[in-house]
Amino acid sequence: MAELQVQIVTPAGVIYDHRASRVIVKAIDGQLGILPGHTPIIVPLTIDGVRIERVSVNEENVIAVNGGIMEMRDNVCSIIADSAERARDIDVERAFTAKQRAEETIRKAEAVHNSKQQRRAEISLRKAINRISVSKHKK
After folding, report:
1. What is the DSSP string of 30-45?
2. Dihedral sign from CA coordinates of 53, 19, 90, 9
3. Is 78 within 8 Å of 70 (Cβ atoms)?
C-alpha cells in the first residue's frame, strides 16, 4: 500500500509525525486532498482542521491548524503551522470561553467602529470555532 509521511510542526515543536494514506487540508483557494505520489506543491493554509487517514491504525486523525503552509514533496507532507492542536488535546471548555470572549469583543468593536480590533477578534473567533469543531473528533 502506498503511503506518505505527515509532519505538523509549530514554533512549539512537532505536533504530529505519522504515516498516512491521505491528507485533506484547506488551502486559501479551497480544500485539497493529498495522496501518495502527489506532485510537489506548496500552499498557504487557512484556519481549519487537517484530516489525516493513518495507515497503521486504520483511523482518521484531525488536527486543528491555525494557518501556515503545507509542502508536499517526495511523499512527505510537511505542515508548518502558526499553531496546531490534536483533537484529543483540545480543552473544549477553554475553546468555548474563547469563542464567547471573541464574540463579545466583536460586538464592542462594532459599537465603537474599531475595525482593527474587530478583525483581530474575528480571527480569534474562527480559531475558537475551529478548535470546537475539531474537538468533536476525539477518539
Report:
1. EEEEE-TTPPPEEEEE
2. negative
3. yes
Strand pairing category for 60-73 and 84-86: antiparallel
User: Distance between CA atoms of 70 and 27, rounded to whole angstroms?
Assistant: 9
Q: Output the pLDDT for position 138.
A: 72
Q: Cell 483557494 identifies what position? A: 29
Angle at 94 between CA 93 and CA 97, to 5 degrees: 90
DSSP alpha helix (H) spans, the chain = 92-111, 115-135
Residue 19 β-bridge partners: 5
The C-alpha cell at 88 is 484529543
Cell of 39: 506532485
* pLDDT, tens only, 42-92: 999 999 999 999 987 778 999 999 999 999 999 999 999 999 999 999 999
Q: What is the mean pLDDT of residues 123-136?
A: 94
Residues, the chain? 139
Q: Any alpha helices (H) in 37-114, and if so which ranges? A: 92-111
